[in-house]
Write a structure and sequence with these properties.
Four copies of one chain form a homotetramer. By secondary structure, chain A is an all-alpha fold. Chain A is about 65% helix and about 0% strand.
Chain lengths: ~120, ~120, ~120, ~120
């Protein structure tokens, strides 16, 4: 298994700060009116597609700085949607991993990523 | 400004656990081979679109449980992409909010979300 | 039932011309190398998301000229993918409408667009 | 330049039939209420992402029959959006190819698909 490269140091403090910045950014501009769940969901897809442009034609459009920016935008809209519904981010993630572990039993799917296989 | 509903309690410990679970899930199934950055970016869009289905026809397809699941999937693929590039999640988010604050000056965009306005 | 507003006059001649223009545009620039089915599929999503930006925040970003352009891009990439696989465009559309008519029987779904309803 | 594989034989008659079938399908189910431009744009992205699943993990999820179905869905929603705005499909496509020919001059972009290149 590969070593974890990502760090989550002081994540609690830092994420609170980020969430506060996102809310202040929105309220300073009177943009909360635009942030309905429907619009946030559209925004997540739109930013995810802008991220995908980096891989649209192999490496031709790739730009690491742009990957950072678009990924940050996807995450920001995800946080705003979590906040809207009062989801506990770690709870919904753990819940989904629980489901996936059951849905994809190791002995049936090892080395295969076959969606259409009857498991 | 609205009250923050989301909590990030023990986020550092919990996110480490989640990242470990995602990595174990992947390596147990020998699926790391599928998780190239290109494929992860496609997966983020695909899960984001599955989230959007909840809002496709107003409320007709809306299901709060499914919103949780699809949002969790988007976040999981985002974390895997962060991990691949060794991005610091909070750093890329703060960096992008800095940029947005400059790009959208309060006095120019207040109450308008007009993309085509010359600022 | 609402009157059909769209016209398909001389569609055979016009579509052949458009397909020739798309192919000449691509070969003049030596871009066929980028148009693998995988990349074309990514491009369809990316252009579809650019279309969606027009509806991202209600009317704030809406621009009818841009709707035309992004829709044209989606259609162009769809035609290129059809061409790659030698699909008969009208055949695949009729085939899918046949399936949908069976999947969504009128008496079960009238006025409901409920995906999760057991039919 | 590669030979055109796609055919558009009797396209005018066939497309009229398809458009009629789409409208009858919709009105028989009283679904026109769901087909606002906003919802149609979301549907195009959603179907495009379902098409992309065929390429999500290289060939693992690829299914040619599913490619036909999802591509047909993308095209159906595009036609419905064209019909809504009374766009002439061939006109908007030719208009966009005109723009692209100017935007990407052959001598500047030959063999490069570089978005960030200053042209």
């Amino acid at each position: 298994m590969h070593r974890m490269k990502i760090t989550f140091k002081n994540m609690e403090v830092k994420m609170k700060e980020i969430m506060k910045r996102l809310q202040k950014f929105t309220s300073d501009r009177n943009w909360a009116q635009f942030h309905t769940p429907d619009n946030l969901a559209k925004s997540i897809v739109i930013e995810a597609s802008e991220l995908l442009i980096n891989y649209q034609y192999d490496d031709a459009y790739f730009n690491l700085d742009n990957v950072k920016d678009e990924l940050a935008d996807v995450l920001a809209y995800c946080l705003m949607l979590c906040d809207h519904y009062q989801f506990d981010l770690t709870e919904i993630m753990n819940r989904k991993i629980d489901k996936n572990e059951k849905k994809y039993p190791i002995d049936k799917v090892y080395g295969k990523s076959d969606k259409y296989t009857k498991l």
